Amino acid sequence: MSFPDIVPDLRSKMPSLRGRLRANQPLADLTWFRVGGPAQAFFMPEDEGDLSYFLTNLPAEIAVTVIGLGSNLIVRDGGVPGIVVRLGRGFGEIAIEGLDVRAGAGVPDVRVARAAQEAGIAGLAFLRGIPGSIGGALRMNGGAYSRETKDGLVAARAVDRAGRIHLLGNADMGFSYRHSGAPDDYIFTQATFGGERGDPATIAAEMEKITESREATQPIKSRTGGSTFKNPPVGKKAWQLIDAAGCRGLKKGGAQVSEMHCNFLINHGDATAADIETLGETVRRRVKESSGIHLEWEIKRIGIPK
């Protein structure tokens, strides 16, 4: 499937654009599930200024969707209409400023954890357990091992749909469980995290425990998307509800509920996005029938069916 090519017209409106802009860019290889259709137009800005220029000149009727490392994402088989923005090397800087770590939104969370560890900054080791980028952590208040993004964030930068740049403090983010209350059209470009003085060896040991725990309890070497559903506000965790509903190992086409950790869905190699999403909805229905609890998707789903 392919979309009408809107790239030539966009380029004519943006003669000073520096980033990469491509038509009908395949997205499957940019996600951990390795499924899904193309982006109608795919944009990788050179830097924050280039992103601002692009959005300022982008016609208002064209939709914009942002993706990160694709670790918590299902791209539907029909692809994504409009623009898909992905932040690349221009958003990959890390700087140590006293007990603060400033990082571009395209930086993998684990790199920020390592930078903090090497600088002897404690309190950010939890980022080792989040398989995504800083932009995603900001948008979803990513968390792991008893800490969340809100616990370490000092400030963030973002560009809105009109190309305006915003500076946000922690309180401006409206954080809650796996959610940020920042406007949906904000594209985060940078974050500053704060910690406290710590011993690099002690922090390294903490990170190693996180790594060992993930490898022992999660199917991280499979084609998966991380935790599929949010934990309910009270009561049992999502995986416990899924297990009690008899969904461990449940299959749909090439997709399966993980036997190791049943809040993970797996693509065994020939699954479609529809297989994975249908399996997830089947799990939600069975959990509702067995427990009365509505599970909420944690994985982001974008695009249109085929």
Topology:
Elements (H helix, E strand, L loop, with lengths): L6 H7 L6 E7 L11 E7 L3 H10 L6 E4 L5 E3 L4 E7 L7 E4 L2 E5 L4 H10 L2 E2 L11 H7 L2 E2 L2 E2 L4 E7 L5 E5 L17 E8 L1 E2 L2 H18 L5 E2 L13 H7 L6 E2 L2 E3 L7 E3 L5 H19 L8 E3 L4
Parallel strand pairs: 2-5, 3-5, 4-19
Antiparallel strand pairs: 1-2, 6-7, 7-13, 8-14, 9-10, 11-12, 11-13, 15-18, 16-17, 17-18
Helix pairs in contact: 3-5
Task: Give an overview in words.
By secondary structure, the chain is an alpha+beta fold. It folds into 3 domains: 9-89, Uridine Diphospho-n-acetylenolpyruvylglucosamine Reductase, domain 2 (2-Layer Sandwich); 91-216, Uridine Diphospho-n-acetylenolpyruvylglucosamine Reductase, domain 3, CATH 3.30.465; 219-302, UDP-N-acetylenolpyruvoylglucosamine reductase, C-terminal domain (Uridine Diphospho-n-acetylenolpyruvylglucosamine Reductase, domain 1, Alpha-Beta Complex), CATH 3.90.78. The protein has helices at residues 7-13, 48-57, 109-118, 134-140, 200-217, 238-244, 273-291, and strands at 20-26, 38-44, 64-67, 73-75, 80-86, 94-97, 100-104, 121-122, 143-144, 147-148, 153-159, 165-169, 187-194, 196-197, 223-224, 251-252, 255-257, 265-267, 300-302. The protein has a 5-stranded antiparallel sheet. A 4-stranded mixed sheet has the order 1-2-5-3, with no helix packed on it. A hairpin with a 7-residue loop joins strand 17 and strand 18 (265-267). Helix 3 packs antiparallel against helix 5. The longest helix has 19 residues, at 273-291. The mean pLDDT is 96.
